[in-house]
Structure formats: C-alpha cells, structure tokens
Automatic annotation (TrEMBL):
Its EC number is 2.1.-.-. It is an enzyme of class 2 (transferase). Transmembrane segments: none annotated. Coiled coil: none annotated. GO terms for molecular function: methyltransferase activity. This is Class I SAM-dependent methyltransferase. Residues 34-132 form the Methyltransferase domain.
Length: 189
C-alpha cells in the first residue's frame, strides 16, 4: 500500500450520531479498544474522552503524519489512554491474541483492497476476547453523498455479515447513524 492511504486526512465523524455510535462501541469504561484505520484520530479522541482512566485505546493507521497528529493531540489533552501506532491493516496486527475488548473501523474498510479484507477480519477475531465487540461504521449504499461514488464500492450490512461470519462473528445489531452512515455491530463467538 502507499504510505499515504487513499482517504488520509478525511473523517466521517461529522456524518454520524456520535452518541449512538459510541453507545454501540463502548463495552465499559475500563476496557481495551482498537480503532482500525484511525487517521488523525477523530474517532479515537472522541472515544478516549468518554472513557475512564483505566481504559486504553489502540489507534492504528498506515499514515505516519496522522498518527503523529493523534499522538500530539492526545498528549496536549492529557489523554493518557491513547496508544497510536503506525500499522498496515493488510498485515498481521502487532497486538496479542485476546487483548482487545472492542474493535471498530469507521468508514475505512471500503478503501482496503478486497483481497486484504478476509485477513483483516481474521486478525480482528484473533485480537478480540471471546464475547468482544466489533463495530463497523460504513456509508450506506447510495450513489450520492460522502463516501465512494459508486454503490458497488460501498459495504452494506449484508456484505459485512458475509465478510465477518467466517471469522467467528455473530451479527448483533445494525444502527442508523444518520443520513449517510450506519453501524453494524458483531459479537465474537
């Protein structure tokens, strides 16, 4: 992959109902979270501000400048519960098996090569604890609005179910986050 991902510097956080999204991602104030494809950390920071001091949010992205920005912002805000790392999501994750209580990916999966998606789902399943949550935020399959211009390049809830089920994920909920986005929540068996 290129050093600067396709949508580096963009965020969908202004297109979602943040309270509703984080209510479906959070599993506890003293849990370990994983933000996959965090960019400059808009979602990471919003989550970290909501959590207690005993929490940890790993934030992974291929974009070094985004990780540096996130690290700087977290330090300025005194958020000691954020651990940003440069990481290629098409490769094995540098996290221990069963070390994460909840993982999420916000409007990133559609930008990853289709061939890399199964491997990533396997890695998410590996790092999550049994009963852990995986929340996928994606753009609805429209031909307009933010996100990919073609509905064929978007990932709908049914697509997400097909992609996650071989890796031990059970669909839990689909939540409408606003005009253009939804959240699909899965539980790891």
């Amino acid at each position: 992959m290129d050093a600067k991902p396709k949508a580096a510097g963009k965020s969908s956080i202004d297109h979602i109902d943040q309270d509703l999204a984080f209510d479906n991602i959070m599993v506890g104030s003293r849990a370990t979270y994983l933000d996959l494809g965090c960019g400059a950390g808009n979602y990471t920071l919003a989550l970290a501000r909501r959590l207690g001091a005993g929490s940890l949010v790993y934030a992974l992205d291929l974009w070094p400048e985004g990780i540096a920005t996130l690290d700087e912002t977290a330090h300025k805000e005194g958020l000691g519960n954020v651990e940003p790392k440069v990481a290629d999501l098409t490769k094995p994750l540098d996290l221990a098996t069963g070390s994460v209580d909840a993982a999420f990916m916000a409007t990133v999966l559609h930008d990853l090569p289709e061939a890399a998606r199964p491997g990533l789902m396997g890695e998410i399943g590996r790092v999550l604890v049994p009963g852990g949550v995986f929340a996928l935020i994606e753009f609805k399959k429209f031909a307009h609005g933010p996100g990919p211009s073609s509905p064929d390049k978007r990932i709908g809830p049914e697509d997400a179910d097909r992609l996650t089920s071989p890796y031990g994920f059970v669909p839990d909920a689909v939540v409408d986050l606003g005009e253009f986005t939804y959240l699909a929540r899965f539980i790891k068996k």
